[in-house]
Design a protein that fits this description.
Number of domains: 1
Radius of gyration: 19 Å
Shape: globular
Number of helices: 13
Largest sheet: none
Number of strands: 0
Distance between the termini: 45 Å
């Protein structure tokens, strides 16, 4: 049992590191391709990896015929979310984009009350308010251009659609194998994005560097990363995995600074800290003692960063 927990922890850290590093790597990819084409390319490379894993796992498909309409709807929601997030990332830093995107748990909390009849807990309400205060601070520092504000709003809308797809999955698709849902979603999203991007966006700059970026952000980050997520989801409580909402954007901010030299000003630190603390409070009520200690340490690091920055 203890060996299994260590294995799951190792897989979780690999997944979080992979997804966190993916933000600055995607930012690099956008130097070679326009947002929609880049996203379509990386999803198209990821789909075969997930399909191979599915075939090797000898899984059975349940209720697929009766769920085609719901699968298409879910895939279209995710396709729009990918499009908005990639356009927002094109005009913003990778670290800031990840922070805005990972406001998703707070939005899930609001939607879950409306559509899943979940209880309104005080700690979650306070966390949501604190988190959106952080969003307001980041939007206040978005710059003077309309384009800068618009890109932040696109990222925020992308996070909302991610939350919407999560609720829709729980309402309509929870009885299906999540791996087959992922295959259909990734394949459909790549087709939709190719259909939209090919007539309006210029072709990417062909190079070894662009191919390497696609391999990482597609098969590795989407294919392998999503597969690890699904494996862990089948073995441990989903609330434990929600801690990635804190770890991933922190890794993205640090890696964006190291890889791209992205500046992290006081406003960004303060707004990001409030968002991460808000996400922590939204998820706090369902945490194990070990996870709480880990997340308190993360929040403590963020708090000390704010004090140093000030």
């Amino acid at each position: 049992m203890k060996g299994g927990r260590y294995r799951d922890l190792a897989l979780f850290m690999i997944m979080s590191l992979t997804w966190g590093l993916n933000w600055p790597i995607m930012k690099l990819g956008l130097r070679y391709a326009r947002p929609l084409r880049f996203t379509a390319d990386r999803l198209a490379l990821a789909a075969p990896i997930i399909m191979v894993y599915y075939l090797l796992s000898n899984r059975r498909v349940y209720n697929l015929k009766s769920s085609i309409g719901s699968l298409i709807t879910y895939s279209l929601i995710v396709s729009i979310q990918f499009a908005l997030s990639s356009i927002g990332l094109y005009y913003q830093s990778g670290g800031l984009s990840s922070i805005i995107t990972y406001t998703q748990p707070m939005m899930v909390f609001i939607l879950a009350i409306l559509f899943l009849n979940e209880k309104l807990l005080l700690s979650r309400l306070i966390g949501t308010l604190i988190g959106f205060l952080g969003v307001a601070i980041l939007l206040g520092g978005g710059g003077s251009s309309i384009l800068s504000y618009t890109s932040l709003l696109l990222l925020l809308l992308g996070a909302f659609l991610w939350a919407t797809s999560t609720i829709y999955y729980k309402l309509k698709l929870k009885l299906l194998d999540p791996l087959i849902v992922n295959i259909i979603q990734v394949s459909t999203s790549s087709i939709v994005l190719y259909t939209v991007s090919l007539p309006v966006e210029s072709p990417p700059v062909s190079s070894i560097e662009y191919l390497a970026i696609l391999i990482y952000s597609g098969p590795i980050a989407v294919g392998i990363g999503a597969t690890i997520w699904l494996k862990l989801l089948g073995r441990i409580d989903a609330s434990i995995l929600s801690s990635s909402s804190l770890i991933v954007p922190l890794i993205a901010v640090v890696s964006g600074y190291l890889i791209l030299g992205e500046e992290v000003g006081l406003r960004t630190i303060l707004g990001s800290a409030l968002i991460l603390i808000g996400v922590y409070l939204v998820n706090y009520d369902h945490r194990s003692r070990m996870e709480s200690r880990i997340l308190r340490s993360i929040v403590g690091v963020v708090y000390r960063s704010v004090r140093i920055g000030s």
